Amino acid sequence: MTFTAQFVARRLGAAVLVLLVVISGTFLLSHAIPADPARAAAGLHAGQAQVQAVAHQLGLDQPLWNQYLTYMGDVLRGNLGISYVSRTSIEPQLAAALPATLELVLCSFLVCAIFGVIAGMAQAWWPRKAGTRLLRGTSILGTALPVFWFAIILQLVFAARLNWFPIEGRLGADTLPPPHLTGFYTVDALLSGQWSAFGDAVIHLVLPVLSLVAWMFALTSRVAERSFATELTRPYVQTAVARGVSSSRLLWRHVLRNALNPIITMLGLQFGWLLAGTILVEVVFSWGGLGSVMYTALQNFDYPMIEAITLVITVAFVVVNLVVDLLYPVVDPRIRRQ
Amino acid sequence: MDNHQIGLADQLRGLSRRQLLTRLGVAGGIAVAAPFLDACSSSSAPSGGAGSSAASSINVTWTNVALPTNVDPAIGYDSDTLQLVRNVYEGLLEYVPGGTSVRPALATSYTVSPDGTTYTFQLRKGVVFHDGAKLDADAVVTSLNRIREIDQGPASLLTNLKGFSASGPDTVVIELTAPYAFLPGVMPWLPVVSPDALKAHSTSGDPHAEKWFASNSAGTGPYQMTSFSPTTSITLTQNKHYWQPWTAGTPTAGSLTLNANVATQLELLQAGQVDFLGAISPDNAATAKTLSNVALLLQPGFEVQILPLNMMRAPMDNPKVREAVIKAFNYSAFKTFNKGFGTSANSPVPPGLPGWDSTIPDPAQDLAAARQLIASAGVPSGTTLDFIGVGGLDYETFAGTVLQSTLEPLGFKVNVSTPQWPIPATLMSKASTAGHITFLNLSANTNDPSVVIREAWSSANLATKGGYNWSNYTNAQLDSDLTAFGATSSAADQKTIITRMQQTIVADNTAVFAFAPQLTEPVARKWRNSKYDALFDENVVRWFYCKSAD
User: Fold this and answer.
1) Among B69, B210, B229, beta carbon nearest to A288
2) B264 and A45: CB-CB below 8 Å?
3) Distance between start and end Cα atoms, chain B
4) Whole-structure pTM over 0.95, yes or no?
5) Cβ contacts from A onto B, under 8 A
6) Of A34, A46, A299, the CB nearest to B427
7) Which residues in chain A (12-41) have CB-CB distances under 8 A to chain B?
8) Do A173 and B420 touch (CB under 8 A)?
9) Residue B105 DSSP one-character state
10) Spatial CB neighbours of B148, under 8 Å, sequence gap ≥ 6
11) How far apart are the C-alpha atoms of B462 and B380, rounded to whole Å?
12) Could you read off the pLDDT of B118-149 as tens digits, one per residue?
């Protein structure tokens, strides 16, 4: 077996183990809460007989181990179950909500990755300039702000007061959603040539993306700064400078590639945090993605929905980190040689 | 007072003497029959006819912290779902907007048998469902049986039911095992669905087409659902074949949108982007009052907030201790917390609901008397009392704070916990985890005032049986009165019984009657003449009965 095959097999094995632990842990923890989801599902005014009927219908009157085995069997067959609240299959609900979340998270991720790396590079190159210090201080302040609070402030100031951006949603009330191709409104609008819908979708993304990016930006730029600063002290940099290599060529062609490993690791982790962190931002901006669904599910003790969304987020996290792991040998030939 | 008379009283209010005499004459002439009255008052029976639209297009938006995730009218039974259900579906009768009297909807009249066990409804002719199916008695019976067989949501209101049947194409009969005088007040909660949709979407595994009705609709109401996205918005549009005429100023389309932040909701309302809101807190109502583009609607809430005192846990088994807690409670602080939006609660029946006993004095704080009672009860200083409220409801947390500030100087230690719903219900169902003091919002869900008493004081609903009798109060006379109250159609007997029940519950010191909140709803100014449906703690507005004031 080649090194790459061994590497991939090891990572896949670890990913499966992580998924099993997360699925089991989520199931057991959610059922450990001393709440009666049948009562939540039956409604506030339901009598005890109705609550028991709902418990029976949803299988909640079964022993816990039985519920666990049924659940695991269903998950392995690709069946995520029935929502206790909507009483309908979970898969269509997730399929409807997932593109909204991915669009938000991917936009935030790209903005954070591109501008965070550039900011880190600038901070490492000009460590003592006033502008750099200001950037560093501002980004740290962004990290210190609670994401939901910052989202509400952005909404109240830039949407409600200044009216620069829409207050909520993915599209304005007057804009028809573009034909469903990917579920990403920006992409679907572009593909179908609906420029006004594209513009509307982009402008609706600004505040939610800013809320998420503010939270992540400082970490990205700090890690990038540290990594670039370390690389800039290496002998090969001094040699390149002595040979008269231009600053831009030095940074983009030589330093960037060597500085990327820790940045990629951190970005991989950040993708998972963004998926989880989007819940509150989606709620504030009525985004209608997985976060909104999760929020409702948490309020109603909708265990199957909570478990399904946790599973989706975990799978996304595992896949992204697997991709990150596979990128190391591509970016750094030394790892391939090891 | 019997149910029909309660409704009649509301309907007759505001009529001229001549109109009044005419109608009393009609009512008197038909003995036990109870046809509804056409009138020009706000509670008049809607007239059938038009259907086509004479109104210009008006699109309204209702926003709330949650949207319905299942719109099946046989299942959805919370205020979020009812906002949709009550605009899309109808029952045989309906409540007057904002009131407690019932009037015709899909039925034009009903009669009651002399023994009070058979109700016969005459259906309105010419009504069609959104999918084109015609309304007839079979459709109604199928729909009512569907509610009964699914046995969730509104099925909990079916009291003493024997069965539904059609005795003609336009005649529906409801038979009861025992008389229940308040059945007409239940009928608005039993929506009728299209028999064609039911037939088309039912399968052997899903005989009631629950999967289809979870995200689709087919009713007779003024609006039909055109899109369903519970994470963002649900849109409704005008039913052009509606049996009532569309008049100028009536909303012709609407959206239900999701917005988890009430501050944002108010901003949208002020900016003219939203017309109606769901339930809001007194703080937000006070803020709304200051907004220039917003009108704050104030209506009777038909709700009381109580703190049940759990008699199963010492020292609450001692009547003196219970009385001391009731006397120690700071009612004015609670009223201030509610920004004055409401009144004192003096009994289990919400003020303004038919049958409410206004002669029972309002509770008031008397710390000296409370201290004396505790001393005579012999409760050791430092005794711990556990208060359990529902997390996320600030008034319940505040009730815990009020208890701490008033009872701790009297020698008690008060532990306050506010877990998320439905954890309090689970905790209260077990003697080992139940609190000494809890919190309940008692809302009238029909015009039967005994429902709130049955819910929180009947021995059939003890906390240990999974019910809301969190005082764990048992009283054989009260149980017997509850049965007798619904069974009699004599107004005098009903008044005697409901008064006795209220006075007994108050005299036995079963709960702190903390407050009776008003319904407070901010709306865009042009909807300032609208009425919300307060029954059921709903905060639901039927758009068809709203008229733009602009």
Assistant:
1) B229
2) no
3) 40
4) no
5) 125
6) A34
7) 33-37, 39-40
8) no
9) S
10) B155, B158, B161, B164
11) 28
12) 999 999 999 999 999 999 999 999 999 999 99
- Contact of B202 with B209, CB cutoff 8 Å: yes
E-strand ranges in chain A read: none
- Long-range contacts made by residues B315-320, C-beta under 8 angstroms, separation at least 24? B315/B377, B315/B379, B315/B383, B316/B385, B316/B436, B316/B437, B318/B377, B318/B379, B319/B508, B319/B509, B320/B373, B320/B374, B320/B376, B320/B377
ipTM for the assembly? 0.70
Q: For B370-379, how does the pLDDT look when each residue is reduced to its tens digit (9 = 90+)?
A: 999 999 999 9
All residues at 6 or more sequence positions from B482 whose CB lies less than 8 Å from its CB, including other chains: B450, B453, B454, B458, B501
What is the distance between the alpha carbons of residues A92 and A88, in angstroms, rounded to a whole number? Answer: 9
Is-contact A237 A231, C-beta < 8 A?
Answer: yes
Give residue-wise pLDDT tens across range B398-448: 999 999 999 999 999 999 999 988 889 989 999 899 999 999 999 998 999
pLDDT tens string A164-209 = 998 888 888 778 889 988 989 999 999 999 999 999 999 999 999 9
- Nearest CA-CA distance, residue B451 and chain A, Å: 11
Give phi and psi for B476, each to the nearest 5: -60, -40
Q: Among A278, A277, A292, A314, which Cα is nearest to A97's? A: A292
Do A155 and B258 lie within an 8 Å CB cutoff?
Answer: no
Which residues have a Cβ under 8 Å from the Cβ of A214 and sit 6 or more positions away? A142, A143, A145, A147, A150
- For residue A168, give the chain B residue with the closest CA: B259
**CB-based contact, B460 to chain A, within 8 Å:** no
Beta strand segments in B264-343, E: 276-277, 294-299, 303-308, 342-343
Q: Any long-range contacts for A9-12 (C-beta under 8 Å, 24+ apart)?
A: A11/A322, A11/A325, A11/A326, A12/A322
Q: Which of residues 112-151 of A touch B (CB under 8 A)?
A: none
Q: B378: which residues sit within 8 A by CB, 6+ positions away? A: none
Between chains, do A43 and B423 touch, taking CB under 8 Å as contact?
A: no
The owner of tokens 């959610």 is A30
Q: Which two tokens stand for residue B76?
A: 């959805």
CA torsion, ordered B512, B440, B96, B76, to nearest 10 deg? -170
Instruction: Provide the residue type at A12 as one letter.
Output: L
CB atoms closer than 10 angstroms to residue B5: 18
